[in-house]
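DATA SHEET
Item: assembly model
Revision: 1
Owner: S.N.
Input lines:
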Amino acid sequence: MTISEYLKKFEEKDIRALSKIITIVEEGLEGSEEILEYISKKAGNAYRIGFTGPQGSGKSTLIAKLTKRLLKRIKEIGIIACDPSSPFSRGALLGDRIRMNELFLEKEVFIRSMATRGSLNGLAYKTKEVADILDAFGKEVIIIETIGASQVDVEISNLVDTTVVVFVPESGDGIQILKAGLTEIGDIFVINKSDRMGADVLYYELKNLIEMSYQNSKWKPPVVLTQAINNQGIEELEKFIFEHYNYLKENNLLQEKRKEMLKRELASNFEQEILKIYWQDERIRKKFDEIFLEILNKKISFSEGVKKLLKEVKND
Amino acid sequence: MTEKEREELEKEYHLWEEKLKDFPQCSLPLFNTISNIPLKIVYTPLDIKDFDYLRDLGFPGEYPFTRGIRYTMYRGRIWTMRQFSGFGTAEDTNKRFKFLLAHGETGLSVAFDYPTLLGKDSDDPMAKGEVGVCGVAVSSLRDMEILFDGIPLDQVSTSMTINGPAAIIWAFYLITAEKQGVPFYKLRGTIQNDILKEYIAQKSYIFPPEPSLRIIVDIMEFASKEVPQWNTISISGYHIREAGSTAVQELAFTLMDGFTYVEEGIKRGLDVDTFAPRLSFFFNSHLDFFEEIAKFRAARRIWAREMKNRYGAKKKESLLLRFHTQTAGCSLTAQQPENNIIRTAYEALAAVLGGTQSLHTNSMDEAWALPSEKAVLIALRTQQILAYETGVVNVIDPLGGSYYVEYLTNKLEEEAYRYFEKIEKLGGMVQAIKAGFPQREIAEAAYRYQKELEEKKRIIVGVNEFVLEDEKLEIPLLRIDPEVERRQVERLQKLRKERDNIICEKRLKELKMAAKSNENLMYPILECARAYCTLGEITNALKEVFGEYKEEAFF
Amino acid sequence: MKKKIKILIAKPGLDGHDRGAKVVARGLRDAGFEVIYTGLHQTPEMIVNTAIQEDVDMIGISILSGAHMTIFPEVLRLLKEKGATDIHVFGGGIIPDEDKEKLYQMGVGKLFDPGTKISEIVEYINNYFKDKL
């Protein structure tokens, strides 16, 4: 099929076309630019929620239960679940769907797993683009899940309107959470598996932290206790998500956030393109290798080498 | 040995060890056990330095029962030859039971089909294509009556491999006996009823852990009063091993599951000596001959010790680890299937030298299909030849005192206790299961084993060595008639029309009420069975109260 | 040319034996593929929906309970119905040779026996895609 044929089917809400288009863009295959052009005109309506937090905190189960609830009033939902690629084999075991089994036969839910393929910020490289595609397809809510391996998957907050940070009672104490920078990006905090020991302690520590950090803010992130596996606390979580959405809308922050996102995306793409240009330049690469050897053999110092390289680039 | 003798021995041993260097050893395959316990080339008294006969072995029939749980073991009674059977309709399986009994089988063992194992009737939409295919379909009391038609239940002992819906299937069996005029107290047999290993390995769970454990204790309580000769749980390691675990993991997780059931019983307020004598076990017998024998011996010793010291059991019967063994299904090959007869024979020998009370031997064609009549007969004969021709039944625990076997027994016990500690730190077996600990250990062991096979560190004849190119399968295979499903569905629909549906409704409602309260569920379940409520109807009623368990896959 | 081959490893029906499926999934990951595993008790409809949403190249079905003559044809039928016949179906487990023949006739790809090495499956997948080019 040609790209325009795919796009035509896409407009007709054909799932296979949606899926194929995501693949083309994710893989950077021929036609992805044309697709992204088309998408950029249509995307921008969906409400995006991000879920981050350490591995094993139950993000996937939470998302599944939340989605089940949302389906009562939201028609179209898209979910992007990220999982790490093996640094050795570059393969990946994408298993987040296991916890979302109950959604497989829901026509309005589209779930896509994405491997990080070397990206280090907890998300796949093309997560934003795929979210845009789902947006353009007509998904009203898009949920994005990070891999959650490290405590510091903060990039997600740049991609979504509402960031939910999920902990479990064993996640550590308030100081560690503060250090990880997670209190800065969370719009809503969840303590999942709250039947485990330590849930109450963590709850109060988090609440105190938030009191201190958000004294003068209009939005004070709430803390929700959940047991996703038993469907407990999901109603409350949903309520706070909608509260945050309204807060953003009423304060014109949705637009602000998206402006920021666009700017950041532009800068990042620009940087990547520049880097590509220079790295693809044969001459520069040769010079790089030469200078590297000079540094290695102690003919020049490290900083001298950097300066030399820069001069080479500037001479272009 | 005196200190001086030991020193002398040690000196001589080291001298001998030095000479070994002149004789090269192969690097492949691996010379450790299948569980990766490293092995020396020879074992001497030095390897069992603190050996104390009375403390470590004792005599057969006496604490710590390492050598065997009975005074006379096989001289008193040969192990039960109990072949796991079941396929098609109840009539088909009834025929197979009678065939095996006529040929010398001494106990019955029922294999149910997948829908039945998961508490679903044969006409459930998810049952399509699965009715009677890997076991017998039993959807109601009527099926159970047909299954045991012509088989007097006071004269056989029956083992039923059923877990999630164990209480219900057992109820069908009990009422079948009732209808034959056999009182409950005369019934002998076992229900597997070991839900913990379902979460870990076999995956035929229905309800979440807490209500499942409640039902199990209900069964234990009921049996201790009404069906005193019945084994209420067959605490299983077989499936854990089949899922890929090592022998150590099989030993440790099985015993830990056992301890958990004991604790649940005690929590309910039951006196341990009232239910512990009826706990039984079910182990795998795999290919690493000596490791398996050591495993069985270690299991007996550990169980006896913990039951006595930790749980304060006073009756001797509470300390006995009685077990059934099945030869390892996962060791069977699809290639050159006749070879499986030999594998099964070795595994059966290990089980007997390990002192099993009951044995199932696999058939050679089981990597392809359910056993054909010809294949299952050979499997039965394997046991009979073992019992009557080889002489291994003449002496109890013939390998006792072997330096290697005693070393391995100690080693497996040591490794098991390491796992006990880890699991206790996680908060006990139920918490460990929720956290995925045993599941991950097993998946890791399974993957490691596969890698070893592919790197030829372990050899399987016919599979990665001594392969026959372009093999053609030349053994007859059992085929299940697709008519089975249709017949079952028809029978079910007929049953639903003919029974008193008002009473059924009533009984199911009463069951739900009982499930919500603290009542022992066996009584209302028996009432439902008597009214010919179907398996699916009873299971669904309980699902409404208890919910369904959804697993997390652990790699 | 796509960078990554995506495979869905599926456990259909009521069969709970997942040792093989999990070992294969992990092995394929170690061979560089992106593997989707969705757990036990999948219906053919769930499998096909997942395959389409994830745009997988192949579906590997693991079945040991004897229900293969029901499951495979149903998966093929649904793939056809949803216009996704370019997704290749293969499998493994306990399937007698006679039934394998029938399934091959229907369009199922290779059916692997017990004892198959992971490297064989990897080779099969790589060769399949080499030919596609």
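QC remark: The CA atoms of residues 195 and 348 of chain B lie 26 Å apart.
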